[in-house]
């Protein structure tokens, strides 16, 4: 997490979904491909979500949340 990201969190600003997803993967040392396979989506789609080229649907957020809770 960079200083700018820490500052945003402290000021109560919400980070974009893609940044949060990338941070989550980094903290847990999970590869993009592994998360994509577990969530049942392509690695390309996950990449687009992380770069904010695509917006996640509610269902996609729930699918990814299931991956977040698994070990």
Could you outline the blueprint of secondary structure elements for this entry?
Elements: H1 3-10, H2 17-28, H3 32-39, H4 43-50, H5 58-69
Helix pairs in contact: 3-4
Give a verbal description of the structure:
With 71 residues, this protein is mainly alpha-helical. It has one domain: Orthogonal Bundle (434 Repressor (Amino-terminal Domain)). 68% of the residues lie in helices and 0% in strands. Helix 3 (32-39) crosses helix 4. It starts with a helix and ends with a helix. Residues 3-8 have low confidence and may be disordered.
Question: How would you summarize what this structure contains?
Answer:
The chain is built from five helices and no strands. It is an all-alpha fold.
List keywords for this structure.
single chain, 71 residues, mainly alpha, 434 Repressor (Amino-terminal Domain), 5 helices, globular, disordered N terminus
What gap, in angstroms, lies between the N and C termini? 21 Å
The dominant shape is globular
Class by alpha and beta content? mainly alpha
Q: What fraction, in percent, of the residue positions are helical?
A: 55-70%
Any idea of the CATH topology? 434 Repressor (Amino-terminal Domain)
What is the domain tally? 1
């Amino acid at each position: 997490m960079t200083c700018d990201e820490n500052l945003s969190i402290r000021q109560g600003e919400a980070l974009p979904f893609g940044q949060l997803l990338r941070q989550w993967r980094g903290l847990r040392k999970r590869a993009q491909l592994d998360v994509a396979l577990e969530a049942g989506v392509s690695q390309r789609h996950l990449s687009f979500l992380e770069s904010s080229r695509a917006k996640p649907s509610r269902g996609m957020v729930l699918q990814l949340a299931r991956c977040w809770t698994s070990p």
